[in-house]
Design brief:
The protein is mainly β. Helix content is 10%, strand content 35%.
Length: 124
């Protein structure tokens, strides 16, 4: 889903949690797609939704992926692929593309929607 606004963070009213989100363009064999990236400095892997990778025409070897979350919750991704994708910022003057390698695909990544209340944020 492409949203017309350009959010750069997420606020959770109770705890003031801010997540870094940036607008990006992804380029593959079939198309260029505008999307958003969640920047997580603590991450040890780059993930992409499997459907997005398919829309871009990305392909790579199938290598099973096991993700372990809190409370030892384990998510097995038996059909995960390892792909490379070109990524760029959104810039009216034309941004340079960079290649991200070893991106793992995940079936139904399903990250929560991110919204920003600009009025609330400006008062902080």
């Amino acid at each position: 889903n492409i949203i017309s606004k350009n959010p750069s963070c997420h606020i959770h009213d109770n705890n003031s949690i801010l997540l870094k989100i940036i607008p990006i363009v992804l380029k593959g064999k079939f198309s260029e797609i505008k999307s958003y990236a969640l920047l997580d400095e603590g991450s040890t892997v780059s993930l992409m939704d499997e459907n997005l990778a398919n829309q871009l025409g990305l392909d790579g070897p199938n290598i099973p992926l096991t993700l372990q979350w809190t409370n030892n919750k384990i998510n097995e991704q038996r059909d995960s692929k390892v792909v490379s994708v070109d990524i760029s910022g959104i810039d009216k003057c034309g941004s340079k593309y960079y290649t991200l390698r070893r991106v793992k695909t995940v079936n139904n990544l399903a990250l929560p929607s991110q919204t920003v209340n600009i009025d609330y944020l400006s008062k902080k």
